[in-house]
Amino acid sequence: MSTPVKAPKPGPQAAKAQPARPKAPKPAPPIGASAAPVLTGAQAVVRALEELEVEAVFGIPGGAILPAYDPLLDSEKVRHVLVRHEQGAGHAAQGYALATGKVGVCMATSGPGATNLVTPLADAHMDSIPIVAITGQVASSAIGTDAFQEADICGITMPITKHSYLVTDAEDIPRVLAEAFHVAATGRPGPVLVDIPKDILQSEAPFVWPPKMDLPGYRPTTQPHGKQIREAAALIAEAKKPVLYVGGGVVKSGAHAELLALAELTGAPVVTTLMARGAFPDSHPQHLGMPGMHGTVPAVHALQKADLLVALGARFDDRVTGKLATFAPEAKIVHVDIDPAEIGKNREADVPIVGDCKAAIAAMIEAYEDGGKERLKTWWETLDDLRGRYPLGYTDIDDGLLTPQWVIQRLGELAPADTIWTAGVGQHQMWASQFIKYETPGTFLNSGGLGTMGFAVPAAMGAKLGEMDRTVWAVDGDGCFQMTNQELATCAVEGIPIKVAVINNGNLGMVRQWQTLFYEQRYSNTNLSTHHSEASPRVPDFVKLAEALGCVGLRAETAEEVDEVIKQANAINDRPVVVDFTVGPDAMVWPMVPAGVSNDEILYARDVRPNFDDEGQI
């Protein structure tokens, strides 16, 4: 993916990502030509957003950004959504971007308003999501004085954005915003921050549109090199145990049709990472499922025993590779990525291909000369044998409570076909990736790289605003839900009818699972008290909380109630809905590769470890 455009490294004083440039004398307009309108910096921000066809901005006003909110009130094109927390604004911008393919926009004031955007900016950076964050800053003369609500947000976010701007002249606002949107959306997508001091928002300058962008050195490579493409195609044609290892870059580039064509042309098995769920249909016979820490046994085995990995928009992260030194030891690597920094970062590539996945896969298809699919017969026999022996499944625990995997499976089976799903982080996220079927890209939105609890509800809000005609379900845990559920008030007031399934096991479920497996069942600080017991009531009661936030609150505690409650939730489309599913605390996510060990050590269940030493013949 493209080399991130970074602001200059901070010196001993506050970082200034875009220092003022010497201004050339402004020539007088030609006789008879109309001069550019003179606007305040604040008016220029809103006008630029309108010119950039921004539909929605998620944010909260405050002192330093307040000048921008006055002209925003008069805009007939840009809708502002008043969130309840800036983190919610950032995640909503992410959800909007993921669902629509457009750049998401969030806005905050200086100091704590800006720093509350750090988590969603870091999340967007890890998962390559195009968002632009506009923040107010204290007046230029006060920068560096520790003024009220001052924070060096450019310096703070420098490592977690593609670029950070500090605007020093109101005349630069159109250009800076145009550049910010271009940088966010092109090459490897990602977040861009634009910080504007209050005095710059209040000063006046000519508004010129379209502006001339000035991005020296920013030249994302999108077209792959023909020689590498031919080498990759030749390796695929020769391989006896190939795997198409598909990452989120395939979704970002819109390459799902090309991926399907390449898979069917070559006959190779396909694995899709957490960020690529839906890039290849779950129902397709060549799909082995998700690889990695909680991947399927066939997918993990395929990567470990492959003689060729064709990595498409994937970054060989630790949750897929396990212990890196033991990952796919016999495999040659074809690595396609639009960011050259990713190629060779974790695993050396035999054939490195810098370029857009859509262009690269299309070129591979054209260059491929079929070596005959008969050579893959033994490979598929092994993989199909593992599929039969180790299917995804779960065991009911006789604790009188609902089985969470079954609840999530029923959610998927009863939802409309084009439903968009968001997830928080933890056990429910993994179960949502395993037991809901994804046939198309852009239908499963979650926090992969950063693993941000609290992502689901605000991301669902942003996704729903971008796709109002589609059903949007947030699958959340009782821990995640309590981090950002205040945005349900936003949804209720703004008329954004999302649906939330709280998989309520009364605990921080994934942490409890690790305590069960690795800490001798010493459950230190994981009980959230969200289950009713004789000793204490539910704290909080999610049904009452939902109602207090302007939503419909429902609960299912028995298997007989589950389908009816899901159907009831699906039928409500004028208000947000929250369903509290009371599930057992002892269910675990399987399969599992414990952290820091080889993928060869995968556990199918607690005491069941497939033996990969003899090609899966167990």
From TrEMBL:
Limits of the Thiamine pyrophosphate enzyme TPP-binding domain: 424-581
Give yes or no: UniProt keyword Magnesium.
yes
Q: Annotated pathway, please?
A: Amino-acid biosynthesis; L-isoleucine biosynthesis; L-isoleucine from 2-oxobutanoate: step 1/4; Amino-acid biosynthesis; L-valine biosynthesis; L-valine from pyruvate: step 1/4
Cofactor note from UniProt?
Binds 1 thiamine pyrophosphate per subunit.
Instruction: Please report the stretch or stretches of sequence annotated as the Thiamine pyrophosphate enzyme N-terminal TPP-binding domain.
Output: 40-154
What CDD domains has UniProt attached to this entry? TPP_AHAS, TPP_PYR_POX_like
Family membership, please give it: Belongs to the TPP enzyme family.
Q: What protein name applies here?
A: Acetolactate synthase
| Species for this entry | Glycomyces niveus
